[in-house]
Amino acid sequence: MIIPQPLQPGDTIAIVSPSSKVNAAFIDGAAQQLRLWGYRVLIGQYAYGSYGNFAGTEEERLADLRGALHNPDVKAILCARGGYGAVHLLDKINLHEIRDNAKWIIGFSDISALHAAWVRAGVASLHAPMCKHLTEECAEQSSTRYLRGILSGMMPAYQVPAHRYNRCGEAHARIVGGNMAVLCGLLRTPYDIFAENTILFIEDIAERTYKVERMLYNLELAGVLPRLAGLVVGQFTEYDEDPGMCATMYEMIAKRVARYDYPVCFGFPVGHVSDNHPIIEGAEATLSVTPEGVSLVF
């Protein structure tokens, strides 16, 4: 697994919009923040675009992404937002060109599809905040500081409180994951990142409890859940609990993995929340779950 080189002051970060269309103010605000960090910013030709719900046609979004990937001056690629549309580009990018031009790609939610391509190409990527966060959140907010640190070469070590559904234990393995619906949609495709002896992290938005349970059954029946080294359950947001399920979201997840003996952490700050801790997809990490709390160290 290639870990992209740390950025230096004066390096260029490209902003592209591979999925849904974006509020232009968020792109401008993120560019301003990145410049304050000492980076140059290259905004994709179609980053501000609009084509239905998307930021451009497939060809336009692909042109910006491949242009940033192949530009030797660009050292990292910040995706402006998620939404939907990254899957359109997957089979149009050769995994060899990702590996031959190894650089950070940054984003989350729908960008989980691109993280899957990077991981399958053998290049680590950054599941991390995007333009709206960089525009609206204080520069000293923890996830922003962690993102800036990782770009400059500092590997993070996270400490989070204990949760009632946690299962204690320790795992040292490669960590992968992201938006659950996106990743389950890639199961049994060339972009399937579920693998034996990995730490899996999951999050989602606006998915009801029964739908998440169905995804978990899919992973269980596919042999994914039994082979994990550890599980990090992030934030599931903007949904209504379904009383017909007889369990809350976290209760349901805890029941689905109760038969396994690996460590499980609930409530980790990753997902569609302000404090969205960056996760280095494909990197080696140590997950330690104790009665006192949880640590995730890269």
Q: Can you describe what's shown?
A:
With 298 residues, the chain is α/β, with parallel strands linked by helices. The chain folds into two domains: 12-151, Rossmann fold; 157-297, Glucose Oxidase, domain 1, CATH 3.50.30.60. It contains nine helices and 13 strands. A seven-stranded mixed sheet has the order 6-13-12-7-8-9-10. A six-stranded mixed sheet has the order 2-1-3-4-5-11, sandwiched between helices. It is globular, with a radius of gyration of 18 Å.
Kindly summarize this structure in a few lines.
The protein is an alpha/beta fold and 298 residues long. The chain has helices at residues 24-36, 58-70, 95-100, 112-121, 131-136, 142-151, 180-184, 209-221, 249-256; strands at residues 12-16, 40-43, 74-79, 104-107, 125-127, 157-161, 169-179, 198-205, 230-237, 264-266, 279-281, 284-290, 293-297.
